[in-house]
Amino acid sequence: MSVISIRKSPFIVGLILSSLVVWALAVPPQESWLSPGGKGDMHENHACDSCHFPADGTARQQVQANLQYWLGFRSSSVDFLTKTITNNDCLDCHRNKLDPHAEHLMMELRFSEVRDLIAPHRCGSCHDHHSGLNLTVPGNFCSHCHADVSLEVEVANPSHVELVEGGRWETCLQCHDFHKNHLQQTPRDLDSAHALDAVQDYFDGVSPAPYGEIRTSYLDERGTPR
Ligand code: HEC
Ligand code: HEC
Ligand code: HEC
Ligand code: HEC
Ligand code: HEC
User: CB of 21 closer than 6 A to ligand 1?
Assistant: First the structure.
């Protein structure tokens, strides 16, 4: 009994949620009512089907495969009605060749423990389209990988070593933009860097990025520069 109920509940929740997506796709004029994020989504005017695509196979095949999985006759479940969204779906519109934290770099062996902890290789670990927030995690996660940061020629004040020794991880994003996709010159002095409030307001989706103009512009409907 316990085995079945543990597996069953997420499946049913997934079933209801996916049905909602499909219903929304079928009635585009009402799409804004149906988004789980309400009006606060980060992609406010984007059609649902710019990210949600139909799953492979017929609904009947999908139900059968999932039923087999649920009963233990299959090793993996399959997508139901809509496909699971992957990094590539996001990158179709958010290309950024200069990203120092691109997925393939996060896949290095030395980060295997960090991957288990915070999954820095998945867009969805830090961004939730339907939350209305630009960033859904605290900005101090740099500590997992940069505890040994020291510049050959130190240019920041306070120095990186001082910041790390003081555990001041909240300061990193006052100077750095994580994906290096903005045109700013990285500030060198913390006193004249971006205020913590301005950074937080950007994460909360309340104000634009403090790091200046976007370098690689976002694409709209996969291919059309905005
Ligand atoms: C910018 C991309 C994007 C757009 C546009 C978008 N979604 Fe989503 N949505 C996501 C992501 C990412 C998830 C997380 C689940 C996943 O990975 O499949 C999600 C999850 C959901 C879920 C939870 C069920 C599930 O499949 O996991 C529902 C319901 C949903 N979206 C409905 C909508 C509706 C309705 C619209 C149009 C108003 C919409 N979405 C537009 C990206 C998007
Ligand atoms: C169809 C193209 C498209 C897709 C797919 C898409 N985005 Fe976007 N995204 C945009 C555009 C255009 C904007 C600019 C805001 C707006 O007007 O909607 C944006 C805004 C954002 C922002 C806020 C940026 C800021 O500085 O305000 C984040 C974060 C983001 N997208 C992440 C994602 C993630 C994560 C996914 C995958 C689930 C995704 N996007 C999928 C086009 C897309
Ligand atoms: C470990 C956390 C983390 C992950 C994983 C992550 N981001 Fe971000 N993202 C951030 C932070 C922090 C910011 C704010 C600083 C900035 O603008 O670069 C941001 C900003 C953004 C922005 C707005 C600025 C820009 O680059 O245009 C977009 C769009 C975005 N992320 C898309 C993505 C996509 C697509 C992925 C997956 C390929 C992804 N992010 C993965 C942390 C993350
Ligand atoms: C999962 C590990 C990981 C996390 C978490 C992480 N980084 Fe990085 N970071 C890297 C890697 C890998 C590079 C590229 C190569 C290198 O410097 O080792 C890099 C490069 C950088 C660079 C140099 C970029 C350049 O090309 O000039 C800066 C600045 C930086 N990270 C800041 C941050 C900040 C700020 C955070 C937290 C918001 C953060 N990183 C979180 C792994 C990580
Ligand atoms: C006062 C601003 C400031 C703060 C705060 C700051 N940095 Fe930097 N950081 C810089 C500047 C300036 C550089 C030189 C490269 C550049 O211009 O982007 C740099 C370079 C780096 C590099 C590249 C190192 C290399 O060898 O090329 C990493 C990684 C980095 N910082 C991580 C961090 C982390 C992690 C934090 C938080 C503890 C942090 N920084 C806080 C200004 C700052």
Answer: yes
Q: Is the CB of residue 183 below 6 angstroms from any atom belonging to ligand 5?
A: no
Determine if ligand 3 sits within 6 Å of the CB of residue 93.
no
pLDDT at 74 over 80: yes
Pairwise CA distance, residues 151 & 160, whole Å = 7
Distance 59 CA to ligand 5 centre (A): 50
Residue nearest to atom 14 of ligand 4 (CA): 100
Number of other CB atoms surrounding residue 226 within 10 Å = 9
d(CA 116, CA 100) in angstroms, rounded, equals: 20
Whether pLDDT at 5 is above 50? no
Residues 88-101: b if buried by 16+ CB within 10 A, e if exposed: ebbeebbebeebee
